[in-house]
Amino acid sequence: xxxxxxxxxxxxxxxxxxxxxxxxxxxxxxxxxxxxxxxxxxxxxxxxxxxxxxxxxxxxxxxxxxxxxxxxxxxxxxxxxxxxxxxxxxxxxxxxxxxxxxxxxxxxxxxxxxxxxxxxxxxxxxxxxxxxxxxxxxxxxxxxxxxxxxxxxxxxxxxxxxxxxxxxxxxxxxxxxxxxxxxxxxxxxxxxxxxxxxxxxxxxxxxxxxxxxxxxxxxxxxxxxxxxxxxxxxxxxx
Length: 238
Known about the structure:
With 238 residues, this protein is α+β, with helices and mostly antiparallel strands. It has three helices and 14 strands. Among the domains are: 42-141, Tumour Suppressor Smad4 (Sandwich), CATH 2.60.200; 162-209 and 222-238, no CATH class. It has a six-stranded antiparallel β-sheet with strand order 1-11-10-9-6-7, with no helix packed on it. Strands 3-2-4-5-8 form a five-stranded mixed β-sheet, with no helix packed on it. A hairpin with a 2-residue loop joins strand 9 and strand 10 (122-129). The longest helix is centred in the first third of the chain and has 21 residues, at 18-38. It starts with a helix and ends in a 34-residue tail after the last strand. 16% of the residues are buried.
């Protein structure tokens, strides 16, 4: 059985265009590297309530951080207009490598890179999940980051490399897609792609992807030729 499976994989690779195989392998390598950097290191997500939100490793805090962090690092004061961090006395919290010794207003990641607080080997920032303000935590030394074994990929099959026709909408439009937490995210889309696979005509709608927290926004955002991102869109839904 194992021998037959290996033979099938070998035949599929032999039939595929070597350039296409290389492109796919490069995409997979980049995807895994990006995933390790941007997602495996995520260590928590806490909703922010209006008013006072205490933070630290003590279980009594509203935002409970990993044990590498002091029991109390300060509090986040949330109002309709802003999120302000007030450090606890002596807390070793930094922003852009500078110690925070007085209250500071924090920029969220809604429109670009957020202000990231660093303490005890972790970082945290104000993350917009739809219209909901949260605190997202990154821990590069956490268990998930240290033990992630990588992805297991399906064999590359040339029949799934298709040429699609782009059908542009009269004008770009915005659609709301629920994320994995149930919060509505707004995406921009300006057309559909149409292709044939196994005799069936398939249409999908690509969206403009948001940059990851550590990336700068693209100068010309949008989808590009290559492995196509179709986050949140279902065939026939839009």
